[in-house]
Amino acid sequence: MLAAFANCFKIPELKKKILFTLAIIAAYRVGCYLPTPGVNGAELARYFQSITSSASGSIFSIMNMFSGGAMQKMTVFSLGIMPYISSSIIMQLLTAVIPALEKLSKEGQAGYHKINQYTRYGTLGLATIQSFFIALWLKSPQTFSGFEVVSSSAGVQFIFTTMVTLSAGTLLLMWLGEQIQEKGIGNGISLIITAGIISEAPSALAMLVKLLSPQTGGAVQLQPFTLVIMVIFLLGVIISITLITQAQRKIPVQYARRIVGRKVYGGQSTYIPLKVDTAGVIAIIFAQSIILFPATLASFIPNQGFQAFASYIQRGHAVYYIIYGLFIVFFCYFYTAIVFNPLEVAENMKKHGGFIPGVRPGAQTADYLDFVMTRITLTGALFICAIAIMPDAIMASFKVPYLVASFFGGTGVLITVGVMLDTMKQIESHLVMRHYDGFMKSGQIRGRR
């Protein structure tokens, strides 16, 4: 593997792509330290420390992790790239239900650019709405009791400045991600999210060292044996995420042999790879957006009845985990149904003379594919549920803050492992194309035959 990394810089084109990607990520990290006008970053950081020091976690702790710590300082990249992710997912859903968008998606490169432009407009709209509520949240004296984050004289001008600053930061991040996509290596948007998550690792490590250090009376909050168990648990989580991410159900397909003149066409055997985890982290993002929406509104609406309702679906309550798990399973099936259409696959196979051995072409093939996909999706959905609630289980079992628990399991680990695997595959394809060995001597990981 070390030799493969060294070979990456022997290929001029690949070397240029890697260095360009690293430069964009460095520019992103610099932007995470540019403050928003009118906000006392030191006081806001002190407020977040009071939150993350507890073992309960909160919605703002999650947002801070995905923004790479920018939310804690309220910098220009505080919103992160999540508005673009949400807009992309919404456009994918609309493309499946609106015939005009579905027709546009089949027009090749021109249709892709048009849909991408609509996604950008949606990103701007979502960023504007979110930045407006964040500005109101920063002005709320009830939220920051004892913390002077924003001057009491801040008015409409502060709200407008905050909206423009945060929205512009999101659009700049979107542009940086697209530059990586075009001129760098890997998926630009995913790499920016991963860089933000990894940037919080030093803070989590410092907090972990503090937990291992003797406190008053010589006692420690976290025993070394417990840390060993957590590390072993983390290795198991990484291995399981890798296996589930690459897991496929291979459906064999046989193409009929055709004789045209003196030439013979078809007759070969292939397979349809059905992914066990088609939705991936998208299901978690949707589920989190919905389940955290009442808690977000409760922080802005001082209604006792509504706040009491929101408290029942917050972390630490059984109702929260039940609803959260059901949402994840639902969105796993929902997204899989949008991405994979058994009827379309069956029709395409029938047109080209393909069939699944033992299954009639046409409607029975579509029913068989739907039957298989429904069952393997359940396995992926249950695994995603376990990964999503893992930080809460770690916090409850080992009594550690959310920032530490999120690096031993959860959405952050799922995103990081998935993005790293995808990036390594792209780098390996460049190496193999130039006759260099890849990261694994035996080639890519093969499924069970």
Describe this structure in words.
This protein is mainly alpha-helical and about 450 residues long. Helix content is about 65%, strand content about 5%. The chain has a domain at about 1-200: Preprotein translocase SecY subunit, CATH 1.10.3370. The chain has helices at about 1-10, 10-30, 40-50, 60-65, 70-75, 80-95, 100-105, 110-140, 155-185, 190-200, 200-210, 225-245, 280-290, 295-300, 305-310, 320-340, 340-350, 365-400, 400-405, 410-435; strands spanning about 250-255, 260, 265, 270-275, 355. Mean pLDDT is about 80; it is low at about 445-449.
CATH homologous superfamily heading of the domain at 1-199: SecY subunit domain
Give the helix tally: 20
Could you state the order of secondary-structure elements as H and E?
A: HHHHHHHHHHHHEEEEHHHHHEHHH
The fraction of residues in strands falls at 5-15%
Question: Would you report the number of β strands?
Answer: 5
Strand order of the largest sheet: 4-1-5
The name of the CATH topology of the domain at 1-199 is: Preprotein translocase SecY subunit
Helix content range: 55-70%
Unreliably modeled segments:
443-449
CATH class of the domain at 1-199, anyone?
Mainly Alpha
pLDDT averaged over residues: 80
The chain-level structural class is mainly alpha
| Separation of the first and last Cα atoms | 26 Å
Query: CATH architecture of the domain at 1-199, please?
Result: Orthogonal Bundle
Main β sheet profile: 3 strands, antiparallel
Radius of gyration: 24 Å
Identify the overall geometry: globular
